[in-house]
Amino acid sequence: MTAVVARAPAKVNVHLGVGPLRPDGFHELRTVYLAVSLFDTVTASAGDGLALTVTGEGTGAARGADLVPTDRRNLVWRAAELLAASAGVAADATLAIDKAIPAAAGLAGGSADAAAALVALDALWGTRAGREDLAAMAAQLGSDVPFSLVGGVALGVGRGEQVTPVLSRTRWHWVLGIAGEGLSTPAVYGELDRMRAAGRIPDGGDLTTPEPLLAALRSGPADALAAALDNDLQAPALALRPDLRRALRAATEAGAVGALVSGSGPTVAVLVADEADAHRLAAELAGAGVFRTVRAVHGPVAGARLAG
Ligand code: C5P
C-alpha cells in the first residue's frame, strides 16, 4: 500500500455544561457535540520510524509553526505510537497533516487529526483495530477524540470522552468566525474555576441533559435550537478575550439566528437560517473586521473516514 488518506471534521459544542473539577484535573461534563464540514486531512505512508509534517491553516512562519508541533507533542504522533503498541506492530509511518481547522480555536482540530491518524494508520498497517478499540485509544488521547471518530451529533459525558449518538434530521448551517489568536483550553477551564470561586458566576454541578436542545436538534426549527444553545465556557472565554463580545454582537446584528463561543473558544459559531444566509453572513462578517477569517459550514457530518 502506498499512501492512505483520512479526514476528520471540526466540532461545535451546541451545549457545554461544565461540572466540578475532578481529582484527575478534568471537569465533569455534559456536552452535545455537532460535527461540521471543515476537515483536516492526514496522509499516512510507509516509513522507517515516525516522521510528521504539517501544512495548511495555522502553520507557516507568520502564524507561528509552534502552534502545531511536528514531534511527540502532536496528538497524531501519540496516536501512531498508541495504535502500534496496542497492535504489536512497529511504529513505522510517514504522516502528513493538512490543516483546514485552525489550532487552539475551540474546534477540536488536534482531536480531528488524532482521529484521522488512527483511521489512516489502521488501514496502512492492516491492524484491523475495530471501532471499539479505536474509541478506547481515542479516549486515551484526549477528551474530544472519541467524538472526532464518530462525528454526527453526540452527547458527551465524563470528561467528554463517553459519547452516545443523538438524532438530528436537519442540516444546520453555521458561520464560524475565527479570531486571530488562539485560546488555551486549560487556561479557559482555569478561568472558569477562578470565576466560580470568586462567586462571579454560578457554581457548576447542574449536569442535566438539555432536553429542549435535543428536541430542537431532532426536528428544528432553527429558532428553537438557537434558544437552547449554551456554553459554560463562554463566560471565562469572554473574560480572557473581551473582544469576543463585539464579535458576538456583530453576528447578531448581521442577522444570525443564534451565536455562541465554540467550546473553549475563541471561535464564534453563528447559527443561520439556511445556506444562502450562511454565505451572506460569512461575506458580511468577513468585511466587519472582527475575525481573522470566516467559514460557512454545515453539520452534522460524518466522523473520521478514509477519503476517496
Ligand atoms: O482532554 P484534553 O487533552 O483535550 O484536555 C485538555 C485540557 O482541558 C485538560 O488538561 C484540562 O485542563 C481541560 N479539560 C478539563 N475538563 C474536561 C476536558 C478538558 O478541565 N472535561
UniProtKB/TrEMBL annotation:
Keywords: ATP-binding, Isoprene biosynthesis, Kinase, Nucleotide-binding, Transferase. The active site is at K11, D144. Transmembrane segments: none annotated. It is an enzyme of class 2 (transferase). The keyword ATP-binding applies. Its EC number is 2.7.1.148. ATP binds at P102, A103, A104, A105, G106, L107, A108, G109, G110, S111, A112. Residues 74-152 form the GHMP kinase N-terminal domain. It catalyses: 4-CDP-2-C-methyl-D-erythritol + ATP = 4-CDP-2-C-methyl-D-erythritol 2-phosphate + ADP + H(+). GO terms for molecular function: 4-(cytidine 5'-diphospho)-2-C-methyl-D-erythritol kinase activity; ATP binding. Residues 214-286 form the GHMP kinase C-terminal domain. One of its GO terms (biological process) is isopentenyl diphosphate biosynthetic process, methylerythritol 4-phosphate pathway. Pathway: Isoprenoid biosynthesis; isopentenyl diphosphate biosynthesis via DXP pathway; isopentenyl diphosphate from 1-deoxy-D-xylulose 5-phosphate: step 3/6. It holds the Pfam family GHMP_kinases_N. Belongs to the GHMP kinase family. IspE subfamily. Catalyzes the phosphorylation of the position 2 hydroxy group of 4-diphosphocytidyl-2C-methyl-D-erythritol. This is 4-diphosphocytidyl-2-C-methyl-D-erythritol kinase. It comes from Blastococcus tunisiensis. The lineage of its organism: Bacteria, Bacillati, Actinomycetota, Actinomycetes, Geodermatophilales. The gene is ispE.
